[in-house]
Design goal:
The protein is α/β, with parallel strands linked by helices and about 325 residues long. The protein is about 60% helix and about 10% strand.
């Protein structure tokens, strides 16, 4: 299988290569979001840049016209959600355009970036090539066994590819080689990882998206209870890390976890305030108690927990 377009583009951006027009096609929105973020970051390194989003060709033309009338020269990145080729005459040099489309469209001087697998049969191979490409991008070594473990784990949840990869990077830290035990550590959390994604969205202030994702997917009661249990254990480890301030080896031995996971917990614990962490633990314990006493169903209890977190933040 050829190198995926996503891998090609992140390597180009790493070398400082930028196109003025990108057409991001396909339904892997998480890859689109990552590329938009990387393009924006690269433009900001080159100078003052601001980003705008549009959803019609008329608004796109207005944004281009407005950019010509700015007194202080700045770079503008326009992200336009369109499903047909816009009829644009000239795009100024200080404007960069990203077209977010569900289907591939053609534009002169535009770089088409396909961000979804060719078909279900090619899904596993597509995931494998992304994993291999990411390992080269981050200068990591990974063997075929570890690639297969990650691929099989992600086959039912490919949208978690970057989330799982970033977790894996935290686990391995400065190590050059990704070991099989590292991949197994992150893969075992995949069945409930979407739940953690919901919580992470909430903590970033994306409340509506968090609730939408939770309600969009079907979760058996057992899986929600497993999520709440794992989240409680995670909060307990974060609390212990803040109280003890241990080294990773000591922490791993005390709580019988891998060194990689200990390193991950110690890393994220630095961003937590004790007061906020205490509130989260109390709300979580309250949600679990209400579920176990039959006051609410598991999914309702998780939704209430999310809403309570948003109100307490």
């Amino acid at each position: 299988m050829d190198i995926p377009d996503y891998i090609k583009i992140i390597n180009e951006l790493k070398e400082g290569e930028l196109s003025h027009i990108y057409i991001l096609s396909g339904d892997w929105d998480f890859l689109k979001e990552d590329l938009i973020s990387k393009i924006f970051d690269l433009l900001r390194k080159k100078g003052d840049t601001f980003i705008v989003h549009t959803e019609s060709e008329i608004d796109l033309e207005k944004e281009i016209k407005n950019a010509r009338n700015v007194l202080i020269p700045t770079t503008k990145l326009i992200v336009a959600k369109l499903n047909s080729t816009p009829k644009l005459k000239v795009i100024p040099d200080d404007i960069y355009l990203i077209i977010d489309s569900n289907s591939p469209i053609r534009m002169s001087k535009g770089k088409l970036v396909k961000l979804s697998p060719p078909g279900l049969r090619e899904l596993e191979g597509y995931i494998k090539e992304h994993i291999r490409g990411l390992s080269r991008y981050y200068d990591k070594e990974i063997d075929d066994t570890s690639v297969n473990i990650l691929t099989l784990g992600l086959a039912q949840s490919p949208h978690l590819l970057l989330s799982i990869w970033n977790t894996l990077l935290l686990l391995v830290g400065d190590k050059k080689r990704i070991e099989e035990e590292d991949t197994r550590e992150v893969v075992k959390n995949i069945p409930v990882f979407t739940g953690f994604q919901v919580i992470d969205m909430l903590e970033k202030g994306r409340i509506t998206e968090a609730l939408f994702l939770l309600r969009k997917e079907y979760y058996p009661d057992s899986e929600i209870m497993q999520l709440l249990s794992m989240l409680r254990k995670r909060y307990k480890l974060i609390l212990s890390a803040k109280v003890m301030s241990p080294q990773d080896l000591e922490f791993a031995k005390t709580f019988n976890i891998s060194v990689g996971y200990a390193r991950f917990i110690l890393s994220i614990s630095r961003d937590y305030k004790m007061e906020d962490l205490s509130k989260k633990i109390k709300l979580l314990l309250s949600a679990e108690r209400r579920i176990k006493t039959g006051e609410v169903k598991p999914k309702e209890g998780l939704e209430d927990f999310i809403l309570s977190l948003s109100l307490s933040s």
